Amino acid sequence: GTSGVFLSAETSNQKEYDGKIHYFNHSIKDNYYSMGVTLSAGSSLAWAKNLFGENLSYDALLKDINQIEPGSEGLFFTPYIMGERTPYTDSKIRGSFIGIDAMHGKNHFLRSVIEGITFSLNDSKKIMESVGKDIKSIVSVGGGSKNKDWLQIQADIFGVPVTTLSIEEGPAQGAAMMVGIGLGLYELDECINKFVEYNEFVYPIAKNVVKYANLYKIYNKIYDATKYLSYDISKLKEE
User: Fold this and answer.
1) Could you give the number of structural domains in the chain?
2) pTM of the model
3) Roughly what angle, to the nearest 10 degrees, separates helices 206-238 and 106-130?
4) Taking the CB of residue 78, how many other CB atoms lie within 10 A of it?
5) 99: domain CATH number?
6) What gap in Å lies between CA 51 and CA 178, rounded to an integer?
7) Residue 226 within any structural domain of the chain
8) Is residue 63 part of a domain?
9) 104 vs 72: CA distance, rounded Å
10) How far apart (Å, rounded) are the C-alpha atoms in residues 29 and 156?
11) 174-211: per-residue pLDDT in tens?
């Protein structure tokens, strides 16, 4: 889809996120969920595909990003191409490539887009952890779960094992399961045990986790360093 979501089930309604991420009632009574949103996750990759490989499949487009070192040799991307929601809620901020060097090629840009999207999702993870959430593993669904190199990047940036569902379309499966539970065909635990299966975990690589943690600190500075430039550009476009 267009956006990327980082979601966590909660059993307590006593979370305070200062408006940085969403907090909703779950369909299960007395349960809740936290949700952070990267506004342009899939759309950032689609944008990059249109630039670098319009006629290629996504697998073909990304087949060589594993030849580029973690961190894309100093190239950063912020996926704010249509503004951002978590953690900034800023409709005027726009995306950036930072650190462009003459030695960077197509695959550096593609890997930096993947890394930038994942850094942005990591913002939501960090917010949840800041109020005591202990995240031991992550289930990746949708477009980000279909590429093995992106899954490894997720594991390395998030710093925890990442798995995928045996059925690719997790949201559609979840909606169907809710219908079954709502109609009384299944109890919750029965439905989960019957329909939810996971693939093998992708585990973080220790040296990459350390490197990405340092790179994430730099990534976190880019918003404040570029937001006023984005605001000035927005004003010019409105004239």
Assistant:
1) 1
2) 0.94
3) 100
4) 24
5) 3.30.420.40
6) 39
7) yes
8) yes
9) 8
10) 35
11) 899 999 999 999 998 999 999 999 999 999 999 999 99
Residue that has been written with the tokens 């003459």 in this structure: 102
Burial per residue of 223-237, b for 16 or more beta-carbon CB atoms within 10 angstroms, e otherwise: beebbeebeeeeeee
Give the phi and the psi of residue 210 in degrees, each rounded to 5: -65, -45
Q: Domain for residue 166, yes or no?
A: no
Q: How far apart are CA 54 and CA 48, in angstroms?
A: 9
Reading phi first (left if > 0) and then psi (alpha if -120 to 50, else beta), residue 155 is in alpha
Backbone angles phi, psi at 134, to 5 degrees: -105, 105
Round to whole Å and give the CA distance between 227 and 89. 12
Residue 98 DSSP one-character state: E
Length of the chain: 239
pLDDT by 10-residue block (mean), the chain, 239 residues: 88 80 87 94 96 93 98 99 94 97 98 99 96 94 90 99 88 90 93 94 99 99 98 94
What are the structure tokens assigned to 120, written together?
């942005």
In angstroms, rounded to a whole number, what is the distance separating the alpha carbons of residues 165 and 170? 7
Please count the other Cβ atoms lying within 10 Å of the Cβ belonging to residue 45: 23
Inter-helix orientation angle 188-195/170-182, to 10°: 140
Give the domain extent around 23: 4-161+201-238
Inside any domain, residue 77: yes
Beta strands in the chain (DSSP E): 4-10, 22-25, 32-38, 76-78, 96-98, 138-140, 162-164
The dihedrals phi and psi of 56, each to the nearest 5 degrees, come to: -95, 155
For 193, the 3-state DSSP assignment is helix
3-state secondary structure of 78: strand
Q: d(Cα 49, Cα 52) in Å, to the nearest integer?
A: 5
